[in-house]
Amino acid sequence: MCTGTTAGAGPLAGFVIGVTADRRRDELTALLGRRGARVVEAPTMRIVPLGDDLALRRATRRCVAGPLDYVVATTGVGWRGWMSAAEGWGYGAALAEACRGAIVLTRGPKATGAVRASGLAETYSPGSEACDELLAWLLARDLRGSRVAVQEHGAPLAGFAAALRERGAEVIEVPVYRWTPPDDPGAVRRLVEQTARHEIHALTFTSAPAIEYFLDAARAAGLYEDTLAALRDGVLPVCVGPVCARPLEDAGVRAVCPDRGRLGSMVRTLTEVLPARDRRELRVGGRELVLQGSALLAGGEAIWLPPVPAALLRALAEQPGRVLSRADLLRRVWGRV
User: Fold this and answer.
1) What are 95-119's pLDDT values in tens digits?
2) Which of 98, 69, 68 is nearest to 83 (CA)?
3) Same-fold call for 2-37+182-277 versus 50-179
């Protein structure tokens, strides 16, 4: 679904931005829309509701069935969701007591804040937000016979759990907010196609699995290389943080991340970076115009153009006064759009 306006030239007027998030999608769409962007919504995955998650309930029962030695909190929202779900199932007090008797490790400030808000205290939290340092800290201990609960968020930490089991630990994987394929795979495919054709100016990602699902959809559509090429040159990938951006980095794509891993910070970073790299000032008939994304900004209004005319005007505006050959125009405009 695409939303936007033709009047009221906000800082993102003229830009078409893809939103791949499921959770907090409405909030992100509203933040971008208020800044003048047109938003294409295509959640690349779906979050299983906690109350319906039998796997999470079984893991919680295992945690309260005996003493825990270590508890690993990987995300703030995942920890809060787990505690809330346990309370709803009648396990809240027992789970809190089990965690209180264990050594609690947290990944990053948000997980630390959630653990403290639940009345617990962390023993160790690494300086980075990666799980590697948590794993190294645990592997430096004698884990034989210990029980370790690992709160996951969306995707299993298979390598993390396997390393602990190799050292003799019993690992309870707590699958909070499991992610499954999207409800509307057709919308994701259309977003992939728009990205490959450079009809999208930026893509936003709030989790690493969302990127992986998106790239899987590109492979299935036969557009994987075209999509990566677009993300390397032309379409701006914006991630909520460096951990989220890892699948793109592994594919050779550099993403933009805010200093703080927050939704508002991501939108502010996008608002600063995107216009700075895709804005052309024009003077036509003594009138000042601005070409930004796919719109001409004039007199406080955004006049949206279709992709081909917008790309054609941009190619001409890059070198005012120069005559471009048919071959140049075909390569610059129709070679992309």
Assistant:
1) 999 999 999 999 988 899 999 999 9
2) 98
3) yes
